[in-house]
Amino acid sequence: SMCVPMLSVQPKGKQKGCAGCNRKIKDRYLLKALDKYWHEDCLKCACCDCRLGEVGSTLYTKANLILCRRDYLRLFGTTGNCAACSKLIPAFEMVMRARDNVYHLDCFACQLCNQRWVLHTRPNTLTRHRPEASQPLFWSFGSSSVAQPCGRPPGT
Fold first, then answer.
1. CATH architecture assigned to 2-75
2. Is pTM, for the whole model, over 0.90?
3. Cα distance between the two ends of the chain
4. Where is the LIM zinc-binding domain (predicted)?
5. Under DSSP, is residue 65 helix (H, G, I), strand (E, B) or coil?
């Protein structure tokens, strides 16, 4: 399985054929997946049929399937339980990790003061509600981050 960028620039002089509709691709930009070329309208997720050029700049392939990120993670990702509420966390959902624990974003809070953490305006960081007590944290998706609000991560 792999995550690959889709966009390619068509070489001048020779138009590629679309693997979806078998017509020539006349556009300057075309999408590439599984070593084949596609019109933007023709490259779709095998599960939900969404147009992959509209939902992001990458696609996922496994077992000759072309999938959007959400369906790839739904089918092949791992699920787990939230360390705070014990409810299932779907594989495609964003999570917060602290040491070996995984949390829903809504469940991630300081163990000492119960202050919830919220997405900050800067991408990929979380801060406390009260700016004077804020410490940046990194949310993670499938990789490990250590969070230490008030000196103690939740669940420790």
1. Ribbon (2.10)
2. no
3. 35
4. 16-78, 80-144
5. strand
**Torsion 39-40-42-47 (CA) sign:** positive
Q: Where are the domains of the chain?
A: 2-75, 80-151
Question: Residue 81: beta bridge partners?
Answer: 88
CB contact at 8 A, 8 and 31: yes
pLDDT of 55 reads 73
Residues 6-22 pLDDT 10s:
666 676 778 889 999 99
* Token pair of 26 as six digits: 């006349």
Pairing of strands 65-67, 58-62: antiparallel
Alpha-helical regions (H) of the chain: 52-55, 69-76
| 80-151 fold | Cysteine Rich Protein (2.10.110)
Alpha helices in 9-113 (DSSP H): 52-55, 69-76
CB neighbours of 74 closer than 8 A, spacing ≥ 6?
Answer: 47, 90, 91, 92
Alpha carbons 145 and 107: distance in angstroms, whole number: 16
